[in-house]
Amino acid sequence: MNRIQSLEMRGISKSFLDVHANQDIDLTIRSGEILGLLGENGAGKTTLMNILYGLYNPDDGEILVNGTPVRLKNPKDSMNAGIGMIHQHFMLVDKHSVLENIALGYEEAPFFFPQRALRRRIRELSAQYGLDVDPDKPVWELSAGEQQRVEIVKALSRNADLLIMDEPTSVLTPQEADELFDILRRMCSEGHSVILISHKLDEIMDICHRVMVLRKGRVTGEAPIEDVNKGRLAEMMIGRQIATAYAKADIEPGETVLEVKRLDVDSDRGLPAVRGLSLDVHASEILGIAGVSGNGQQELVETITGLRSPLAGTILMHGKPLDHADARQAHRLGITHVPEERIKYGIVPNLLLYENSVLKRHRDAPFSNWIQMNYGVIRTHAGNLVNGFQVDTPSVNVKVKNLSGGNIQKLILGREISGGPDLLIAAHPTYGLDVGATEYVRRQLIKLRDQGGAVLLVSEDLDELFMVCDRIAVMFEGHFMGEVDPESCTVEEIGLMMAGSVRQEA
Amino acid sequence: MQIDLIPRQRGSAALNLVILVGSLLAGLVAVSVVFALNGVNPAVAIFSIFRGSFGSWYGIKETVTKSIPLILIGSGLAMAYKAKFWNIGAESQLLVGAVFATFIGLRFGSLPGLVLVPMMFLAAFVGGALWGMVPAVLKIRFGINEVISTLMLNYIAAEFVKFLVVGPWKGATKGGYPYTDDMPAQAILRQLPYSRISPILLVLAVVGALVLGWLVYRSRFGYEIRVIGENTHAARYSGINFFRTSVLLMAISGGMAGLAGAGELLSIHHYLSYPETISAGYGFTAIIVAWLARLNPAYTIVSGLFFAGIIVGGDAIQISMGMPAATVNVFNGLILVFLIMGDFFISHQVRIRAGRSVHA
After folding, report:
1. In a domain, B157, yes or no
2. Is A375 close to B218, i.e. CB distance below 8 A?
3. Are B237 and A339 a contacting pair at CB < 8 A?
4. Which of B10, B219, B234 minimises the CB distance to A359?
5. Is B357's Cβ below 8 Å from some Cβ in A?
6. Is residue B358 part of a domain?
7. Is B358 within 8 Å of A344 when comparing Cβ atoms?
8. Of A27, A402, B82, B261, whose CB neighbour count within 10 A is largest?
9. Whole-prediction pTM
């Protein structure tokens, strides 16, 4: 099979109902090149890549490989053409081994002893590109970085010349991200090409040869990386300058609001998730928790919000104990929660917006009495949230599933903040949001702090933590590696702590 | 040509109605095939069914009579299904309701009707509720699938009723038949002249369905039911008490079926006998009633009438056209299948167009 020397998408358009997801987009990539694809959520990056991967058929336009038009009607066509895609959420079977996962759909295996041939192929590819994977380990034992390498091997084993990577670093530590970039550079030197979808401007500047920016389904800029800088990229992406730092009121933290002492929590699998962790959050303060996903943050948040029982330790809210898993008790004590998986936990997609606007507060006056829901008051409340938190919706009588991710998050944030909480726990509140919505959410967190609220912010986005927080604690394998002052600490220092390699006494 | 399936962005009441009617029509077409295979002209058969149920005063009266248990049970099922609690056990909840009512009737036969009848209905509700709460507790505490447990409880209740009517409760006045003695005369519900319609029972069914409709869509309890049904994760996040809500939900759902049991006992049969006689499969037909009502308990008033009509009309064509007794079940089953398929088109849109994909 001919390798992909160049791939060209010409005049690609795609509409969903009356929304133009892609309009007349041209894209070119040559062998050995890394192309950054940048854009806000809903800018059309994923649609464009899904077209290239054969998941969608474009309404108009054509795709040429080495100058010859090709038809990509399904992912199989794309794989045969040498295009591989690595999704943000890995498509691996947890309980199967690495080898078995790669074998799934592997067509070159001989009839006899297919494992032997495949294991040899995995070894070859691993050695060639520096991809360290153990073929016989079950996938659930692997870290996110290792799983990603499995995905890459899987794509390469199918002879992918062009690799599409959708937000590949969102689950990695900074060190793992660097390793990934080394792998990508090595692949490029071997003649592969990569399309990298990302929100992170640093990454794009760091690794890409060329960058293309989409906004509202159209190409708004394309340039060799030498010709642009971060500010210029951000401008192309959102059409205006973003605030890089946020104004915060100059106030001292107040009384202790939340006090967690020597907390032990297990994960669903019964493995230790949090061990001997203590923290306190004060009024007028944002405490950030940095760390790579899966180091106990989720279990910590679930315990404080009354969704999970601790094994040991105490949680005091204004001195009153939250003694068992009871989300209502946490709510009554004044803890509100912007959950990590916002669509799974934070809303009921098939209920209407106004019905969602009181989720968790639905038992509080004036929204209901012991028997009846007060839908008049609730509709007014929902209207206020929509106006006050810039939720873009035709009315409060639409199903929430029809809102975009950013608007859903604004609604959840508004719902959780509008009651004037003593403590807001926000888990990855800007994950997957576009730049505009991200900025809005961050400002709201700061506003809450300035008004005397306490905020516990769990995030993987270091820039966000540095911009927003008063203190940052770094979590690794269930405990705090240390606490840093965002004014004086560097991203590199914190990155090392996130990887567990330096232990700094708090 | 290219066929796209797209999640539907916005629905409307008119669209729902069109799809509902379309599903029913598609169901009728499928039923027609069954009729045709039996050598019967489908148009004549379907016409005969509706003439049998709605085409005469006798038919209408019988239809209303049979709609009463369907509405009572169907509204309770609609409520349970709204929480995605798949109660398939209304048949046995009805029977246990009838057993509880019979117990009161046999034991306190000397009480005046004004006291006895409410007591019997209350007992029937409690009986159905308790029988309904068992699978709720099993599900929430032990994770046992409610479809299995409610279905299996049907057999237990049915065998228990058989045991009662041939054993301890076998009537002294029934000459060896497996019946209990008649319920006290003062407990028997009065019927409209020349019909089997009990006005009190009819009012109970209609008011019950409306109250359940209010509960689901207006009450705090109903809000929690709908949140649980649509997204259990969000229900957990918002601190909804699954145990309390599910147990209460199934108590009401089972209780409604229990009321239907007491109604059949006191209006139609007057004594407890074999389970097939007491219920005639109402607990299963009501599943389709709830579905046709789009899980809105209030709408079961209409869908209950519709399916009662099919039962009555089905009986009519059994006699007049010599169709097998299972015809009605086939009819109901096909309608349910098409209704459930119709739901797909409420949430999805199909676009067919003469399309190109990429230029080749």
Report:
1. yes
2. yes
3. yes
4. B234
5. yes
6. no
7. no
8. B261
9. 0.78
Give chain B's domain count.
1
pLDDT one digit per residue (tens) for chain B, 360 residues: 667 777 776 667 788 888 888 988 998 899 899 888 888 888 988 888 889 899 899 999 999 999 999 999 999 999 999 999 999 999 999 999 999 999 999 999 999 999 999 999 999 999 999 999 999 999 999 999 999 999 999 999 999 999 999 999 998 888 888 999 999 999 999 999 899 999 999 999 999 999 999 999 999 999 999 999 999 999 999 999 999 999 999 999 999 999 999 999 999 999 999 999 998 889 999 999 999 899 999 999 999 999 999 889 888 888 888 878 787 788 888 888 898 888 888 778 877 766 544 433
- Whether chain A has a CB inside 8 Å of the CB on B5: the answer is no
Q: Which domains does chain A have, with CATH numbers?
A: 6-238 (3.40.50.300), 256-498 (3.40.50.300)
Is B242 within 8 Å of chain A by CB?
A: no
- Cα separation, A54 vs A156, whole angstroms: 18
A58 inside 8 A of chain B by CB? yes
Instruction: Round to whole Å and give the CA distance between B324 and B307.
Output: 18
How many angstroms separate the CA of residue A16 from the nearest CA in chain B? 9
Chain A residues with CB-CB distance to B230 below 8 A: 348-351
Supply A37's token pair.
Answer: 């694809």
Contact B102, B270 (CB under 8 A): no
> Does the residue B201 lie in any domain?
yes
| Residue spans of beta strands (DSSP E) within A88-192 | 162-166
Query: Angle CA(A292)–CA(A296)–CA(A301) in degrees, nearest 5?
Result: 105
The pair phi, psi for residue A204, each rounded to 5°, is: -60, -45
ipTM for the assembly: 0.86
Q: Please list every residue in chain A whose beta carbon sits closer than 8 Å to the beta carbon of residue B241.
A: 328
Note whether B218 contacts A372, CB cutoff 8 Å. yes
Select from B111, B312, B84 the least CA-distant residue to B197.
B312
Tell me the C-alpha distance between A83 and A74, whole Å: 11
Q: In the 8-state DSSP scheme, what is residue A313?
A: E
The answer to whether A210 and A204 have CB atoms below 8 angstroms apart is no
Nearest Cα neighbor of B88 from B300, B290, B269 is B290
Kindly determine whether residue A373 and residue B219, on different chains, have CB atoms separated by under 8 Å: yes
Length of chain A counted residue by residue: 506
Contacts of B221 in chain A (CB under 8 A): 371
Domain that holds residue B112: 70-288
- Contact assignment for B9 to A331 by CB distance below 8 Å: no
Residue B353: inside a domain:
no
CB pairs under 8 A between A and B: 97
Find tokens 């592997």 and name the residue.
A106
Sign of CA dihedral B329, B332, B335, B341: negative
Residues of A in contact with B360 (CB under 8 A): 69-71
Is the CB of A373 less than 8 angstroms away from the CB of B237? no
User: A16 touching B, CB under 8 A?
Assistant: yes
Q: Does A69 touch chain B (CB under 8 A)?
A: yes
Q: Say which amino acid occupies B66.
A: K
Mapping DSSP onto H, E and C, the string for A245-278 reads CCCCCCCCCCCEEEEEEEEEEECCCCCEEEEEEE
What is d(CA B113, CA B93) in angstroms, rounded to the nearest whole number? 24
Per the CB < 8 A criterion, the answer to whether A61 and A10 are in contact is yes
